[in-house]
Amino acid sequence: MSIVQNITGCFNTTIGSSGISRREYNTILKKSAKALSFIKIMISNNNPLFLLPFEKKDLISLEPLVRKFRHKFNEIIILGTGGSSLGAQAICSLASYKTTRNHKTPKLTFVDNIDSERFESLFKRIDYAKTGFVVISKSGNTLETISQFHLCFNSMEKKIGIKKASKHFVLITQNGKNTLRTIAKYLNILILEHDKDLGGRYSAFSLVGLFPAMLAGLDVYSFRDGAKTTLNEVLKQKNSKNLESFKGAAIAFSLAKYRRKANTVLMPYSDQLISFIPWFRQLWAESLGKGGGGTTPIGSIGTVDQHSQLQLYIDGPDDKFFTLIKVTERKKGKKIRPIVRRNSDLNFLYNRTIDDVMNCQLKVTKSMLIRNKRPVRLLEIAKIDEKGLGSLMMHFILETIIVGNLDKINVFNQPAVESGKKLAKKYLRDI
Amino acid sequence: MSIVQNITGCFNTTIGSSGISRREYNTILKKSAKALSFIKIMISNNNPLFLLPFEKKDLISLEPLVRKFRHKFNEIIILGTGGSSLGAQAICSLASYKTTRNHKTPKLTFVDNIDSERFESLFKRIDYAKTGFVVISKSGNTLETISQFHLCFNSMEKKIGIKKASKHFVLITQNGKNTLRTIAKYLNILILEHDKDLGGRYSAFSLVGLFPAMLAGLDVYSFRDGAKTTLNEVLKQKNSKNLESFKGAAIAFSLAKYRRKANTVLMPYSDQLISFIPWFRQLWAESLGKGGGGTTPIGSIGTVDQHSQLQLYIDGPDDKFFTLIKVTERKKGKKIRPIVRRNSDLNFLYNRTIDDVMNCQLKVTKSMLIRNKRPVRLLEIAKIDEKGLGSLMMHFILETIIVGNLDKINVFNQPAVESGKKLAKKYLRDI
């Protein structure tokens, strides 16, 4: 089992009437059987989301390009926003923790906004001859990405000329006519294919998440392997009731439906998951926030937010469901050696590692939430490496799809934002 | 006027019954007169929070130490968590946008967590002889900070010896007996005073926020000046109804009270305010989340979250109050030069700067929220430099205090988290 889950802190037997009853939970869990069929149908229909974890060839074919980019550039800037950026950011953050890091690994910089001050300082800093760009937009029509691309290409062209500049860019977009594709063709920029059937927020396991990860020197095969582990557990089960993703989805859904927990707080106790949070927020919000429904995802970092948000969490409005994430096999680090040896205030530190302190603080938060009758579950994962992260991301993709299925929501569209895109172009014309 | 505010998107005349009526708003705004007296009494009682913006001497006296640290170290690590870190992080992030940056400015690294993986990679990376540490804890008893300090000191001591190591550290803590102070005295580490009457989340204008900012080479006098501008507007008014902070607080409070907007979304359209968001989240959550009340702060980044959260914001549960922040005087950057000149899809880009695109997207979000009957206000600030940020931070401190006053809440304590601190030490002993 890649992920261990403890949901006892969500039941009325533990936290009173703020928690749900076993009966309510079991009813919902039973209903989730439909979602299991739905997922199995998706798989048998070769849905890329669930096919990718079993693939290797597509990544192998990218390797020559990756080698070339890693050799040629000392910095690679990834342009794109939302689903074209957050998955890769979540994965690539692992690279900064690699202690055996190859010094020839280029620095990856994600620019997902269009802030002029950010670009100004970027252009002053970079070494043009040694900087590459990866431009990612599924539609190829995202206004921000088109603007980012132009700004960077204009700047690069001025320094090294149009022909050379084109060799510094790669575009990832879907097939068919679109603005970025037209420009890339015109400039002879290499184009890689974004699967048409894969929405941005579900694209982390495709080249959208993994081309940047390969550039960062990560083991992307292990990352897919982690997702495969989680998926295989689902595939081999006939009954959903023993699957952690189904249990998690049933708890989240029933707490929202029967106990009005309108917010879902995700609080990992690991710095390596800080970039995972915005990815989760998009996945959850954009998939489920429809027709007045859905719950609002809130990111929190343990232990940091014990010193920032805990007062509100335990004594503010009781409208939240908490998910704490614990990493069980961490580099424990050296034991802390108390400096003032006779100081009794430091007794608690003797023979402890910093990892012990982290785990104690997690236990404190869980206890405090339960004492204050706030529903909380604990997810435990062995390790946050490529495999662990792949496993965790697939777990949350499944939870999202299952909750959507329970709530009769199409988790793959985002109807409310589409009209905004037209509005932006209109406003720009009208300035 | 340093901050311009537009609140029309919050009224029922604009967004129907989801908005508040002018009558409700005016009743609350009238009640806020009490908060104006409260603030004026705080000032006449020499409360440091409101005195600091008028001070200079304390910063001048820090300058020799700052010069020494900036000369001696090429990296300075700031240890501490919550209020001991978030204010300084918000301010210091400005340094990364300084295009005229002095290359001798040491790199500032904030470590506000106790993740063993983070420390492991930190210790492999740093140049011990050229690294300084600033340890910040008001109480001097924060478990995380004590652990961080030991880990760093143990490591440093091993490399350069105990006597030399002590010269690489500075501690900021309050007067009186506490664990970190005892250790610092034992090791002859320099101690700077954290004002006893200044809570962590209100300490950004003291040396807690400004010693790191000075190390980063920022103009801290301008930062205080910004706060002074905002405060002076309050001081010279007899009536609260024309003050932006009172108007903002009245809107926030009445939307929470009369329209059940349980969440408050802060969405700046500026990368320079990304680190400002966690500071605001602590200020708001810890000050107001008490006795089952308060609203939950949610950070969002424009335009990034248009591609991540907007679907939920406009089509999910109607339980949020939105604050968009616009920066009016940005470095506009060069005009975007469309590459495929005959492509009509790019017409909207002609003669536009990236800043135009940013502002259009902000306008889109505001329109979409109003169309979908979600309460939204717009705050405009001329510039995010030291002065602008100081002004904005003081604005939100005032809003928080005014809402607390309207809600009869003590905004300066955090009762619910105190018992957790004892629990952590108990758990550590019991492992």
Kindly report the spatial arrangement of strands forming the biggest sheet of chain A.
Answer: 1-10-9-7-8
Q: What gap, in angstroms, lies between the N and C termini of chain A?
A: 56 Å
CATH topology-level name of the largest domain in chain A:
Rossmann fold
What is the chains' assembly state? Answer: homodimer
What structural category do the secondary elements of chain A indicate? alpha/beta
Runs of chain A in which pLDDT lies below 50 for 5 or more consecutive residues are none
- Largest sheet features of chain A: 5 strands, mixed
Instruction: Tell me the helix content of chain A.
Output: 40-55%
CATH architecture of the largest domain in chain A: 3-Layer(aba) Sandwich
CATH class of the largest domain in chain A: Alpha Beta
Mean pLDDT level of chain A: 94
Number of helices of chain A: 18
Query: Could you give me the name of the CATH homologous superfamily of the largest domain in chain A?
Result: Glucose-6-phosphate isomerase like protein, domain 1
Report the C-alpha radius of gyration of chain A, rounded: 23 Å
Could you say which overall geometry of chain A the principal axes of the C-alpha atoms support? Answer: globular
Most extensive chain contact? A-B, 119 and 119 residues
